[in-house]
Amino acid sequence: MLRELLTNATVRVNVEVKNWEDAIRKGGELLTQDGAAEQSYVDAMVDSVKKFGPYMVIAPGIAMPHARPDAGAKRLGMSLLTLKNPVEFGNKVNDPVYIVVCLAATDHTTHICVMRELVGILADSKKMDKIRSAKNLEEVLCLLQE
Q: Does 113 score more than 90 pLDDT?
């Protein structure tokens, strides 16, 4: 399922961002362009960080922004950005962030299978280092689909 969500349309490499909000907005833009979410969902992801803090920085160097399904998720969707320069989200343990994975889900259970696949990749530190240092989209897609 992960290979159906993370595609040429939803993955970007060496993205330049100004800060954590810009990173979320650029990842969210991929979700809206792919038809998985409305702009209101992207705004809700940003608002979640402002309201609740950087809880979505789930591991060293990795953030997974998301929002409530009713904020504008249209279907299950995911985007992935590798950042040219890491950004601080404000998480003392896991900053700076190099990889941003935005998630859109229409309920609280549909995304569980894809999350299992993603956790398998995230737990592989060698693979994550290769994804982070990949020079092009094809390299990242290949690593995700191994």
A: no
* pLDDT above 70 (res 109): no
Angle subtended at Cα 91 by Cα 87 and Cα 97, rounded to the nearest 5 degrees: 30
Choosing from 12, 25, 26, 66, the catalytic residue is: 66
pTM beyond 0.85: the answer is: yes
Q: Give the domain CATH number at 119.
A: 3.40.930.10
DSSP 21: H
User: In this predicted model, what pLDDT tens digit does every residue of 14-34 receive, in sequence order?
Assistant: 999 999 999 999 999 999 999
Give the count of domains, the chain. 1
Using alpha carbons only, what angle is made at residue 94 by residues 93 and 98, rounded to the nearest 5 degrees?
160
Please confirm, yes or no, whether 66 is among the known catalytic residues: yes
Q: Which domain holds residue 50?
A: 2-145
- Count CB atoms within 10 A of the CB of residue 63: 29
Q: What is the mean pLDDT of residues 38-57?
A: 96
- Sequence-ordered list of residues with C-beta below 8 angstroms from that of 34, at least 6 positions apart, any chain: 9, 10, 77, 79
